[in-house]
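Hi all, posting the design record for the shared folder.

TITLE: backbone redesign
STEP: 1 of 1
STRUCTURE INPUT:
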């Protein structure tokens, strides 16, 4: 009887082992998927990268010099126009500042930076109201240069302004001591404008120069 029990127990173990090895075994493999977002952040001055105001006569001393496109045009066809474009994979702001006051080459003299005014407009496919705001807001308004950086392009919260150069194309009209600059120009910090014509400033004849800096800043950190 004892032998029969041992045989039966052995057969049961064999049956269980057979059933266990007969069951399906789950397996898995992992395929990693990585996504690299390389930043694209580029600002390019297309034309008007060297603006030269040359005052030759009394009329220009009295009335100043300005682009023929001031007031409404989004074209950069005048010698006192600049055009730049931005390609960015993220929303951005563009700040502008004057490196220093205009310094004379032959004399230790400076010009007030507020004698230069500018207008800015968006000539790309993005509308300023939906994608960004400009300073000044309207192409008919002026601001004057400052050595403190301030945003001339600010991304809007609705859609943002990430896009290519066709989307983000900007035109600047420059003016030197015109009646509009004298009477209406301010910058984003409320700096007072000049109050009299160039001929009343009594500047020494010289070649005066400074640099305008544009800085492209993403609205997200990386």
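Okay, here is what came back for every position:
SEQUENCE:
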């Amino acid at each position: 009887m004892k032998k029969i029990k041992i045989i039966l127990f052995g057969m049961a173990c064999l049956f269980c082992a057979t059933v266990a090895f007969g069951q399906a075994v789950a397996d898995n493999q992992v395929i990693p998927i990585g996504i690299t977002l390389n930043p694209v952040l580029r600002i390019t001055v297309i034309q008007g990268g060297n603006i030269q105001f040359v005052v030759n006569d009394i009329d220009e001393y009295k009335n100043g010099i300005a682009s023929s496109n001031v007031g409404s045009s989004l074209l950069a066809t005048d010698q006192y126009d600049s055009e730049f474009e931005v390609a960015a994979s993220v929303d951005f702001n563009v700040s502008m500042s004057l490196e220093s006051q205009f310094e004379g080459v032959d004399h230790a003299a400076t010009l007030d930076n507020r004698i230069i005014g500018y207008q800015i407009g968006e000539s790309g496919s993005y509308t300023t109201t939906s994608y960004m705001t400009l300073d000044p807001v309207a192409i008919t308004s002026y601001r004057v240069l400052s050595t403190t950086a301030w945003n001339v392009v600010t991304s809007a919260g609705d859609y943002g302004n990430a896009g290519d150069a066709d989307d983000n194309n900007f035109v600047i009209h420059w003016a030197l001591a015109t009646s509009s600059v004298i009477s209406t120009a301010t910058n984003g910090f409320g700096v007072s404008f000049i109050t009299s014509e160039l001929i009343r400033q009594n500047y020494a004849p010289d070649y005066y120069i400074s640099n305008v800096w544009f800085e492209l800043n993403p609205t997200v950190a990386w």
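COMMENT: The first helix runs from residue 2 to 22.
Let me know if anyone wants the other runs.
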